[in-house]
Design goal:
Blueprint lengths: L2 H10 L16 H14 L2 E4 L2 E3 L3 E6 L1 H7 L3 H19 L8 E6 L7 E7 L24 E2 L26 E2 L16 E7 L2 E4 L4 E5 L6 E2 L10 E4 L5 E4 L6 E3 L2 E3 L1 E3 L5 E4 L2 E9 L1
Parallel strand pairs: 3-4, 10-11
Antiparallel strand pairs: 1-2, 1-7, 3-5, 5-6, 8-9, 8-18, 10-12, 12-13, 13-16, 14-15, 14-17, 17-18
Helix pairs in contact: 1-4, 2-4
Length: 282
């Protein structure tokens, strides 16, 4: 079962209790969960072959109406979101420099239904040593997320303390999706496109790529919740994913849809399987 599905099920168990009112807000918890996963992917830093560090301190900025609805449950929601990030990191083999925290914050410049995620990497007091220094804070100026399919990523929180420098000899390099089979080498200047499913890469080398449970699909997904021909990724400007009349539909970056534009790091959920779309220049 996927990380996002488990997160949704945990929330469903709280719906009939004090957490029920959360789901009346314009911004849904599952949207925030998807944004936090993308935040980890987009700010992952490879320290060495066995260690990829991701942010562990997150601020979710909400419009005043959304914040007023969600803030009474911020403790429960923060715990659930932190647990989701921890589960996702374990699945992706990411590591943290300290404890995971998710904070809600009101932003007067955001309209109802918009939200913004910011993150940084903070080392716990126990890990402050010459051998374990914090990774640099990540992020630049970003636009708010808008439902559905909001774009934009975080700026570092104002006034955030400077992070210690990397240990001598350790040069963080941007994550480009890890290692794996199936990605061909292309000449510089071209855009490489691929998808990642359960840690395995599948190169996109044709205008369309059909995903499904059928052996005739370009990429076969062994998942009972996936239709024989479930969806199709189309390479274009911009690239898109299209539902092919599947039984359970597709969820793209936390939104149920039949068609969506893709960008590097977009997450497509089919059945209980998560597909990560990747692209890079050169």
């Amino acid at each position: 079962m996927g990380v996002m599905k488990r997160f949704e099920q945990r929330l469903e168990g709280l719906v009939n209790g004090t957490f029920a009112k959360v789901f009346k807000s314009e911004v849904q918890p599952v949207e925030i969960a998807g944004a936090l996963q993308r935040e980890c992917d987009n700010n992952a830093t490879i320290w060495n072959r066995d260690r990829t560090v991701v942010p562990n301190d997150f601020i979710v900025e909400l419009s005043a109406p959304d914040y007023d609805r969600l803030s009474p449950y911020s403790g429960q929601l923060g715990d659930e979101l932190s647990g989701m990030v921890r589960d996702y990191a374990k699945q992706q083999r990411y590591t943290f420099m300290g404890g995971i925290k998710v904070h809600l914050q009101k932003a007067e410049d955001l309209d109802t239904g918009l939200y913004r995620v910011r993150s940084r990497t903070l080392a716990s007091s126990e890990s402050q040593s010459p051998q374990a220094a914090a990774a640099p804070a990540r992020g630049g100026a970003g636009a708010p997320h808008q439902r559905p399919g909001g774009q934009g990523y975080p700026a570092q929180p104002t006034g955030a303390p400077p992070m210690p420098a990397a240990p001598p000899g350790a040069r963080p390099v941007p994550r480009t999706g890890g290692t794996g089979a199936g990605v061909g080498t292309q000449s510089q200047g071209q855009t490489r496109r691929w998808i990642e499913i359960n840690g395995t890469r599948h190169q996109i080398s044709r205008p369309t790529l059909v995903l499904g449970r059928s052996t005739d699909a370009d990429v076969r997904i062994d998942d009972p919740g996936v239709s024989r021909r479930h969806c199709e990724i189309r390479v274009g400007t911009p690239p898109t994913v299209q539902d092919l009349g599947s039984t359970n539909g597709i969820v793209v970056d936390g939104q149920h849809t039949t068609r969506a534009t893709l960008r590097d790091g977009s997450r497509i959920v089919v059945g209980s399987t998560t597909i990560v779309y990747r692209q890079a220049e050169g």
